[in-house]
Write a structure and sequence with these properties.
With about 90 residues, the protein is mostly beta strands. Helices cover about 10% and strands about 55% of the residues. It is built from 1 helix and 7 strands; from the N terminus they run βββαββββ. The chain has a 6-stranded mixed beta barrel. β4 and β5 form a beta hairpin. The longest helix is centred in the middle third of the chain and has 7 residues.
Amino acid sequence: MRVTVRLNDSVSAPFYVDTGASGVALPVHVANQLGLRVGPKTRHVPVTTANGRVLRPLFRLDAVELGGARVEGLEATLNPTMDIGLLGGAF
C-alpha cells in the first residue's frame, strides 16, 4: 500500500507499507530534503534484502507520522536504489 508519510515535521514523502520489512528505509532524495548526510562518522548496519546482505547508513529520525500515528526517535536506513521509501514493522 502506498501512503504519504510526514518526516521530522517538515517533509512529506511517498512510502510503501511493507509488512515484510522490519525497518524503515529512506530514498536518497528524501534524506537530502531532511538534511541527512552520510559522513565519516555515520553508522552503517547490515540489512538483508532480496538481493542479499548489504551495509546501509543508519539515521535517527525525530518523528515519523502516518495518519494519527506518530513515532519519535525512529531509526531508518538509507537506500540508494529506491525512489519510494519503505515503512516496515519498526513503525
